[in-house]
Design a protein that fits this description.
The chain has 151 residues and is mostly helical. The protein has seven helices and no strands. The longest helix has 26 residues. It is globular and about 45 Å long.
Length: 151
């Protein structure tokens, strides 16, 4: 596989996982009466550490989340093995959580205040979705996709 193809697959997998990976913490927030946008605003403090306005933090959080999701997608596309990709993706998600939350995030009070379990679950989900999407793309089109469609 070429480097540009690997990069493209990583960007695509990171984008898909970036959208789906936040489901655990969002569900947790909704089930417990919390704010489902709290994690997004907390991510905004990565770019705007002194900012307190919710709207600006939300926009900054979206930008940070997209950049981080795409970047990790490209990294994982290069390092995840073809054998047992889901297990490797799950492990990668936990490792990313340790780095994102334990090393970088501990310097940011808004990130430190987030409930840890749902955030780790988000990272685990992210790693699994990246691995699943990469495996799907590496396997090529499914036999069902080659069936001619009637219009």
């Amino acid at each position: 596989m070429t480097r540009s193809r690997t990069r493209y697959d990583g960007l695509r997998a990171g984008a898909v996982a970036g959208v789906l990976g936040g489901a655990p913490s969002t569900a947790y927030a909704l089930l417990t009466g919390g704010d489902p946008l709290e994690a997004s605003r907390a991510a905004g403090t990565l770019l705007l550490p002194g900012e307190e306005r919710r709207g600006r933090l939300l926009v900054a959080g979206l930008i940070a989340h997209v950049a981080i999701s795409l970047g990790w997608g490209v990294v994982l596309a290069r390092v995840l093995p073809r054998r047992r990709p889901l297990a490797a993706g799950a492990l990668a998600g936990v490792a990313i959580a340790a780095l994102d939350l334990g090393v970088v995030g501990r310097r940011f009070p808004a990130i430190r205040r987030l409930p840890l379990g749902p955030q780790v679950a988000d990272h685990l989900a992210y790693g699994l979705v990246v691995a699943w999407e990469l495996e799907r793309r590496r396997s090529g089109p499914s036999p069902a996709s080659r069936i001619p469609r009637l219009r």
